[in-house]
What we know:
The protein is globular. Helix 1 packs across helix 2 (69-86) and helix 3 crosses helix 5 (201-213). Helices cover 30% and strands 29% of the residues.
Amino acid sequence: xxxxxxxxxxxxxxxxxxxxxxxxxxxxxxxxxxxxxxxxxxxxxxxxxxxxxxxxxxxxxxxxxxxxxxxxxxxxxxxxxxxxxxxxxxxxxxxxxxxxxxxxxxxxxxxxxxxxxxxxxxxxxxxxxxxxxxxxxxxxxxxxxxxxxxxxxxxxxxxxxxxxxxxxxxxxxxxxxxxxxxxxxxxxxxxxxxxxxxxxxxxxxxxxxxxxxxxxxxxxxxxxxxxxxxxxxxxxxxxxxxxx
Length: 244
């Protein structure tokens, strides 16, 4: 099963093709405000480098956030358009889950932190375990690790979240990833290297492939972003119109 996965919710515009748990190609550009110009060329390049045709796709896996409102609109519009054109389903993948899945298997507790401004972060808490053997009975390369969601995606003040993590971790270290990892962290927290902090296309595609195999797909028109907060335009509208 050939799966295209990509995420545009952060500064990373990342694209990958995965087939039956094997990574075929991955392309990533880390630069804010270039996603509208780079996403479609990266997708085309991924197919060219993999020597595959878009008509072979079984599904499109897209990072649905939380993250940049503009970035999410760009990515989800592309996912819907491609899925509609090919007559295939979409697979929504949490950007936070993709960050956690991109870490080495067996990392343990992982709390992705994405900057939501105003001293707040988009975050969640996962337990990352080795994937083990896939149902086919063989260990495939770069297969996504098993994720257990302990705390669902939320929007919280960073300081309050770190205090809560200290209570939840039960003595275990917590790996911090994402673009909002503070420069100074508690002694129980482990900041991951910069190169592992943002979502990876292969993780989006691998998580999408696993979900697609379980029948967890949606029609293109049902693919929706996870914002967790209203946009500035919506807030301004309410202020100008008295909340009506």
